[in-house]
Amino acid sequence: MGLLTIIRKSNHKERQLRILFLGLDNSGKSTIVKRLLNAPDWQEQSPTLGFEIHSLPFDLAHGNDETAKSQQAVRRGRQFTLNLWDIGGQRTLRPYWRNYFERTDGLVWVVDSHDAARLAECREELWSLVVAEERLASASLLVLANKQDVPGAKGLEEVRRTLRLDELAKQRGATVKVMACSAVRGDGYNEGMKWLVGDCERRLYWGSSTMQGTVAVKAVNDEAGNTAPTIAAA
Ligand SMILES: Nc1nc2c(ncn2[C@@H]2O[C@H](COP(=O)(O)OP(=O)(O)OP(=O)(O)O)[C@@H](O)[C@H]2O)c(=O)[nH]1
Ligand SMILES: [Mg+2]
């Protein structure tokens, strides 16, 4: 067993997940990460020149909602520590993205839904990562259609179509979840993260936890009884 495999197993035992935030520059990755961290300075954003790592305690019942956690007993065994990797998306930085792929459990692809002119570029980058990169093949994939608060922003369906997410899910043989969100309004991303962490949990722990069997929820049976990957739109 290689060293990386040992580290990965040990992280999973401690319920640590490695989550990458990727997407074109200006899509809102850092803003979403700061919102998840409940950082008071989430509005003070400048382009990420490299990467930042943050650790986030995350509870599958409540996400990052501290108030809800203090009001209810925390359900044992469904808590995780998320290591969030917020990576700069500028074109000159993209060749370095591949340096971060090792041991990735979940990928959050953030889209600026208002930047119609760059949706095609966004699709090319996403596809070149997810289809060509073996180290991401088994990662859970969440697409956040961000900036829904901006008038004229493309809706969920249009983002899904333009990024050809149905086709992408088929190619990967795994669910792709796409959710609308607005980092400014503060909606969508927490739900998205709950799905992502739940999906990681099902993949990594379902054999030994109460989640066994629920993985079938994500697949649809066609008439011939074959299971097919699904696109789950919120
Ligand atoms: N209106 C609106 N603006 C947003 C939203 N999310 C982020 N922004 C703004 O978009 C700009 C870019 O946000 P960042 O979070 O820095 O984007 P990024 O994806 O981290 O960019 P890079 O680090 O360059 O890759 C900032 O001015 C944010 O305030 C949103 O949901 N709605
Ligand atoms: Mg950034």
Describe this structure in words.
- By secondary structure, the chain is of the alpha/beta class.
- It has a single domain (3-208, 228-233), classed as Rossmann fold (3-Layer(aba) Sandwich), CATH 3.40.50.300.
- 29% of the residues lie in helices and 22% in strands.
- It contains 7 helices and 9 strands.
- A 7-stranded mixed β-sheet has the order 2-3-1-4-5-6-9, sandwiched between helices. Strands 7-8 form a two-stranded antiparallel ribbon.
- The termini are far apart.
- Guanosine-5'-triphosphate binds at residues 23, 25-31, 45, 47-48, 88-90, 110, 146-147, 149-150, 182-184.
- Pfam families: Arf.
- Belongs to the small GTPase superfamily. Arf family.
- This is ARF/SAR superfamily.
- Keywords: GTP-binding, Magnesium, Metal-binding, Nucleotide-binding.
In short:
This protein is α/β, with parallel strands linked by helices and 234 residues long.
